[in-house]
Amino acid sequence: MYPELSLYIAGRFIGAEGRRTQAVQDPATLQTLGQLPWAEAEDVASAVDAAHAAFGQWRRVSPVERSDLLRRVAALARERAAVIGHAMTLDNGKPLADAVAEVLNAAEHVEWHAEEGRRIYGRVVPARQPGVRQLVVREPVGVCAAFSPWNFPFGQAMKKAAAAIAAGCPIVLKGPEESPSALVAMAQLFHDAGLPAGVFNLLWGVPADISRQLIEAPSVRVVSFTGSVPVGRQLAALAGQHMKRMTMELGGHAPVLVFDDADVDAAVALLARLKTRNAGQVCVSPSRFYVQSGIHDRFAAAFAEALAAVKVGHGLESGVQMGPLIHGRRFQAVQALVEDARAAGAELLTGGGGLGAQGHFHAPTLLVQVPPGARVMHEEPFGPVAAMARFDTVEEALQQANALPFGLASYVFTRSLQTATCVGDGLEAGMVNINHSGMAHPELPFGGIKGSGFGSEGGTESFDPFLSTKLITQA
Question: Would residue 347 show up in a list of annotated catalytic residues for this protein?
Answer without folding.
Answer: no
